[in-house]
Records
---
Amino acid sequence: MNEFLRKKWEMAGLADDYIFNKVMLDYDICLEVLRRILPDLHIKKIKLPNNQQEFAVAPDAKAVRFDIYTTDEQGNHYDIEMQVADHHNIAKRIRYYQTASSMEAYDKGQPYEQADDSYVIFFCNFDPFQLGQQRYVLHKHIDEIPEQIIEDGQTDILFNVPSLRHDVDPKMQAFLDMIAQRKVEATDPLVVKLKERMAIVKRNRKWRSEYMRRSVYEMDQEMREKKIREGERKIRDGKLELLEGKRELLESKREIKEGQDRLKEKEQLIQEREQKLHENQQMIIKTSIVAMKALNIDETTIKKEIKEKFNLSDKEIKDYFAE
């Protein structure tokens, strides 16, 4: 395990959120990165970047922990995030980060129009919206007039780090290439600073130990989550099997009921046929008795003839002659 973690630490680059955070804590690097992301703002200075600053919108609300948080001389707020894995919740995740960041932009008693602007910036090791763009800049707009942007001071910027489109400024592209560990121009001052800073981070024993402890925790957490997901899957499968069993049971009951109904119908049909045969036999016997009487055959002979021919009991013979 220690050897695995050691190699993981040595191989980790800017795409690793821990390394990214420690590198971006450098004032000059953070300032230059923000300038490259937002050149039109002409940012002159920022507050010392804060690592893992936590905000809660309400006491009972889910807390959000920013990777890198800072403000500039104009009071604009910046949250910079490294998103390693795609959990398919990026849109709602950004909304919550923006909400937390925007809360800091409103001072008590301050008019709404004086609220500071808030920028949430995500560097994603995947295409966040699967639309093939290298950079996504999000603002609110009017649905009926899509080109009409609502200037509410909130801006979300997402970078698709693996993209090779080169749609961004060359200086911004250099930073993205550093994250993606692609070949970069060694003379770029930011590239030089990044390499120097990463070397400092990698030599820091405290950060290395913290990284390994966190990695162990994350692996344990991932294992627990995997077991939970596996348990949930088994529960879902069990429920599906139970539902399937119930369905099969209901189907069997339905088939049994249909079989019973068919059996009753056959029994009814047989009874009707037996009744019809009995009535026919009665009519034949009565007709035979009348015919033999018409021939002046004595009653004793008629009874004997009818009894033998139709296999009747003495009582049945008696009933016929009693009519």
---
Amino acid sequence: MRMSLRRGGVRTDGVVVGVVVALGVAAAGLTHQPMGQSGLGYLSEPVEYPVDIPGCESVEPPEEEQFYGVATSGQERYDNPDYPWLTPEKANAMSVAVRDALPAGVDVLAGSVVWSFGDPLVFQPVPSADAAYDPGTTADGLVSRDGVEGSVTVNVTRLADSPKPCQAGWLDARETLSDGTVIDTRDTWTEIDGDRIYSNVVRMYARDGSVVVASSSDYNADYESTGTVPLSIEELRTIALRPELLWSTPVPDGMLPLPISCDTNSEGAGQFSSRAVDRLNASLDDFWRAVGVPVELDRPLGSMRTSPSGSAGACGAVMAGDGTLTIRVIDADYEPSENPWGAVTLPDGSQFRDDNPGASSMTLDGDPIDEVTLVKPSGTRVDVEIAARATSVDRPLLQAIALAVAGSVA
């Protein structure tokens, strides 16, 4: 279980300093509220009051410190009766909308820094929280723009009351659109143990009660400031105004549930930018159409995405008939073995090998696993596996899929 504390909406998990950085900064940009000194080496931008704020008829004084507890056990589900609108299909539609709204040139590097093993920019189930606080659903991830790392976080909640009154330290400007939508913006900084993190924040109050907070901060994978926030206020505004993020927006017909979770357990820089993954997916879809195997998939074979643990890997999982077909590719320094178990060396030097002899005795939720591993001369490794009690996805087809993946990457 992970416990964290929120002060006026800012997560400031004080269990250990590492968690303060990993969680506190992410959500500080998410729902930023002035904190000042916290006793944990945490400092926020000083608040001026009295102050005039554009778009506000009046400005209230800063709020007194408040703390809210939020706990996640990794067992939250999308069938939360308190959030009947947040289905796996709705979460997928929201996630697709956020990724589609990212500016050109922004690459997704890694998954959530808030939720363990969370996919990049995928809306998670709502965690448990104090009755006085509604944490909503959050999607976040590490991104890169012009070679500089940063983060993007989007949170969606539903409130019954009106937008929060203008308050010093909460916003820099307020905009009210013709339909009554209210948009608050803020650029600010927070500091942990002397490392200053800059954030841009856009908070949108919709007429249906949805509250969308889109934020971007300049911390990297090591939770250190890079000095450049990847997304501007205007770009975050575009994300926050996506109609798919409103709780009341119906899910499009044919929208699939969220993809099956996957990871490659890879870290560090790699070749799997968003564009590289798109090319890989196109190659897999072309392959599947060409082979014409009579196996029903629940989504395109080309459903790979950046691995949650970093852009050195990409992975995807689909339901294939009665089984789960998983593909992983890792840009690493694997070396073909001189005496591999059951290896077959191809003319280009690539090598099919069995790194897990006896893997047929392994199971996934009780289903036997069959796996093939292909290592290219470059060191790139491809793993393809099927977990099923009975399926027409046989070993030669797994090998063919591995070859299709290997042929589309360096």
---
Amino acid sequence: MVQHLVDLLDTWLPSYQEDWVLAVLTQVQGSSYRKPGAIMLFHPMGKSLGMLSGGCLEADLRRHAQRAIQTQQVIQLTYDATDESDTSYQLGCGGIVNIMMVSLNKSNNYLGLVSVHDALMRSHSGVYQIDIVADGTPADQLNGHFVEQKSEQATVITLNTKTHKEAFEDHSVLHIPIRPPVHIGIFGGGLDAQPISQMAQTLGWKVTVFDERTAYARTYDFPGCQIIKKATKDVSSSLLASLDAAFVMSHNLQIDAKTLQVLQPLSLAYISLLGPTHRRDKVLSMAELNIDDFSGYFSAPAGLALGGELPGSVGLSILSQCHGVLYQSKITSLDTVMLS
């Protein structure tokens, strides 16, 4: 189940002029399944997109969505899981969550979500700003709009940038950081790259597989992925610059060395190189590079010490480490150097 906002909006857009309802998580006290800024969409025929909990609230939210359409008024909801004796929703998280629901229509310009989708499709980052108003406020009095970040500001919208609220006299504005899905490049289209591509797409990440060799990176082995059948040096700079992370795994010393030469100048958050330490040293020597030449997290041997040796286990190990780096989580690796 893909939950990135761009996927929700992809599904919503063909019928956006129908009576959809937006539900947005505006505040959390204590722990909760999702963080402030999480978005869900409800259709009057019962279809829903996204999730705001582990499944315990969605049925009740669907009922309130019908009311939001009928009244054309904002609905403010509070779910309190701090009382363990209250089994109404069995949230289990032990926190308090506030959710605002509002009908999307022409009079409130669909709260700017069409512009959000347009920006994400162009791989642009920014901040989605939506009014937080009192319960019962007419839906057409709400404003929502997307503020794109200029290219020099784009790095501000990182994966762990937090949603924040700005208070005014009669209302508040929720500022939700928005960025395109994570984009990873797999350099080497062998069989052991398939589990990585599959798991990454399950996370909602965009995957591009690079391999100039005829027998590798075949389209039917990597469904849903963009396939580039060129030497890395011949790939467009704009495509390479769009990557957040790179997995170098061609199993060919020369190809891996040439790939690292091309990737080294880029501002990638994570680069992994498959193989043991002695292979890493040989590849780096052939590329005339050192470990400290990379500006991001350079992992070789690649991955976390999870155990297992089959492609699925290795892929999980590498992808988990990459995920931890991108979201700036504390991780323990096999033999990894954190570079400044």
---
Amino acid sequence: MRASFRALFAALFSIGLLLGAGTGSAQADEVTPQTAPELRFVSYNVCGAKCPLPEATDAVRSAWVTGLVREIDAWDTDLIMLQELCYGQWRLIRDALAGRTGEDSYDTVWGASLASASDCDQWDPVDRRFGLAIFSKGAGSIVEGTRSVTFLPEAPAKDTEDRILLCARAQLDARVARACNTHIDPSDAATALQVPEVAKLVEAGRQAGEPVVLAGDFNQVPGHADMNTLYNHGTGSTGRFQEVDENDKEHFTAVDCPQTEARCRSGEATASPTCSSHTTGAAKIDYVFLSYEWFKTVRGDALPCPPGMSDHHPLRGAAAWEQ
């Protein structure tokens, strides 16, 4: 790579991107690899199509993947949920993680939400599919034959991308959990349809007695009524899920969540102007939800992001088994 790109990627991956050393931002409840509970999760909208690489070269693509893999390893991640992922990008991550031995390897499933996204040609000029992926720690950790892709209901003014829920049963520590990943349409009419449908679909796994991990970009803030069907606490809530960053009192809202409360439908912003010039405000719209019966001691942090990498912050979470 030219010197300018070497410098850029040194900044992105060696010290700035995703904090592979696990340093995180200066937060009062900062969750580190040394202090977090043993079950680890990452949800990240990687903006694979719309966020341009400095150059569409093998070296640049490899540097991007290397930075992501560093964060996965630094967090000792069990489940990684990626959104806005180009197929060629997924294939590179898959190959980087699958080629390792034992628990250092990862199994994965992919789901397409768009047959072709023109901007995905920076990852593969031939196969430009666009969608979601789940990565699970351990070779063969995804239970064979359990992958499912469910198309979510669309609002009348549908955009070009199909909105889906990608799920698979995966080994999580010594148990099998249902892992699901989604990317909800940002229009108000669509979130009102799609979030309740996702809640209904993952509730089926919870009712069957399985631990459920649901992650994704929901394009909606925690306190909105659309999210009632997921949260198991807060005004209007009807769900059975907790969210990894719900106990960070630094982000409790003054009206809805006094500091005396233990939990709040809130959290650190995962979309902000520091990630993207077209993002005008800061908001939490990315989540890792865990079924309440199976998990305890939830923790979460939104990590810093360097400009140009993605228009979202990576969200990492942790929890312990309830029983």
